[in-house]
Here is the input.
Amino acid sequence: MGIPGWPLPAVWTIVLVAFVAVLLLWLGKTSALLKDQLIPQIPAAQQTFSLARSQMAWWFIIILGGFLYVFLVQALGPHPDFTAILANIITPQAVALMGISAVTAGGGAWVDAAQDTPEDSLNDGLKLLGLCNIQDVAALRQDIASLTAQLQAMPQNPVPLPPDMVAKLQDTLRDKQLLLQNYQDRTAPFCSQGWFRDMTSDVDGTALHRLQALVWTILLGVIFVFLIAKTSRIPQLDDNLLALMGISSAGYVGFKYNETQY
Amino acid sequence: MADIRHVVVLMLENRSFDSLLGALSPMPPHFNGLNGREYNVYEGQRYAATSAVVGSAPFSIPTPDPGESYADITEQIFSSPDPEKISPPAMSGFVANYAAQKSTSGPLNPQAVMHHYTEAQVPVLHQLAKAFGVSDQWFASAPCQTWPNRFFTHAGTCWGITDNNKFFENGQEPFRRPSIFAALEAAAKPWRVYFHDFPQSLLLADIWSTAARRFRDFAQFLVDAKAGVLPLYSFIEPKYFANVFTRSPPNDMHPPHDIRYGEQLIATVYNALRAGPGWENTLFIITYDEHGGCYDHVPPPPAVPPDAQAGPAGFRFDAYGVRVPAVIVSPWLAPGSILQPLADGEVHPFDHTSIIKTLRELAGIATPLTARDEAAPSLLPYLTLPVPSNLGPRQVIPQNLKPSRAELRANGAELPNEYLAALGKAAERLSPELRTIARDTSGAAENVAQVGERAVAQVRAFLARL
Here is the structure.
């Protein structure tokens, strides 16, 4: 099976990479796959995107596609030698790229765990208000809905409730509405503002250490793909390029340590 | 006469004069501070006024909070709940009253209430007192709790009510007496209240028509000071509740809150004023609403009753409360001034209504709010420099301190003390019907974070409705 004018390995690679990319994008949007998950009271879909996790996913797709493409090109060629093929695709540079992205993700997670962050304070505060997780928030919404329904149905009750009971219901509803409003106001600054803004900003706004890490990651990824397409081999990235990637990631983790702390 | 265009009052919480300024050093001549011979006797044991640390938290003494009701204060001053039985007041019942308090936070050491801080512990207050002036003759307006004294500050009376919660029982809250804010409004003189979480002054009903544009977050104070657009009168309310979300502790100095955060607030206000273009026309008053049960050695003198309203046991509000710290800051005040109205021929010492008197003089308001502020001495005669030449330190630097996450979490998880509970109840009165919410109290008691967050939300909603 093929597309006229397109080599078979390229078609298969594009199909598989597209499938994985769509799957990752869908999971990234609806689940916590690419999210920080620092605030358990916020639904996964509203958690902010993690730069380190996104970077990891980016290199995963690129290197997976690269491996597949090079493997297919060489495996479908005349007299394939599978031992040599494997040696050709698992290069030190590819391992280094995956390693850098994994260390960046791990470093970011360590910083989040080690530091007292605004997210920690939000979490502490919400817990003190009785909202420990997303289930508590759902229960609060449910309480508000059922109290509202109860009060709306009251005029139809054959036996009216005593006025003090009605006042208590109204006040309980008001308390819960206030709590929900508080929850919404407090969590709003910590909800996702969209992938790009999450990537490039922290609670203080746009952050240079994030922007540079994002730009270098995209640029090196594009170079990597270009070289594979041109040579049909896993590219021998220049050591300086890899060092650049390492410095960029280290800069990100280092400055993340310095992001607004309490 | 001093050209004062901005009066800024920062009223903190519950510290006696001796507890913060009694050890001012070097002690100026005639200054009525501690001389090392003050003590109380309880169960045959002497408890001296001392700076020796009591307990494990040197900046949170006394812990737990001492008694501060009218009955408590009567006992502290007279060693008896019945003031008729002992006269003159001997200031000898502080330890006995403290020892009798119920403690919900561990064992209570009676010595704690006799504790006083040193200059090294409250450097900002002492530095400003020496660079500008201090009054050792400033008393709380009445021997009772926070709200009555704060209402004296704003309205010259507490209308016969001595305890915070009594305002609810007597239907006097919201407080409906005429206030200095409304008087300034009528005289077309601008004023603002800058607050952190809950502005207690919002309980003054006569300013509700203008409160929406007159009440501002404290952050706005810093902006206004920098821009030189402060009004004639700025009243600053400290942060009463621990805010876990912003990791900011209470800075009101109310026992057992850490006093260093209050020092940070004082420094922030001073530094903003000092750096602003309005500095040469500023009078900054730092004082405390009441002594909060902390020891002071000076008996409160008689006072002019503000009105005909009587308190418990027929108390006519004809005596002041216990002495409180008062640091007066202005470029028009000579460095090291000791403000002593009784030594200068005045009949009465300073109390909180001296703020009203000073403002009335500045704004040209002839009519007093009550007989108390009519009789109060003004601060203006003490601003004697011919030109605003005492510019003071460019900056005062408080102790560098950041609360830990665990500290804030613990603050937020505490049960509110009586004062915070009263603020929470008051915030609920700001509902559209001005009534207390019929809350289900059968579950777990609410913590400081819950009460504080709801109070903040209710204040915001109230101001938005006005």
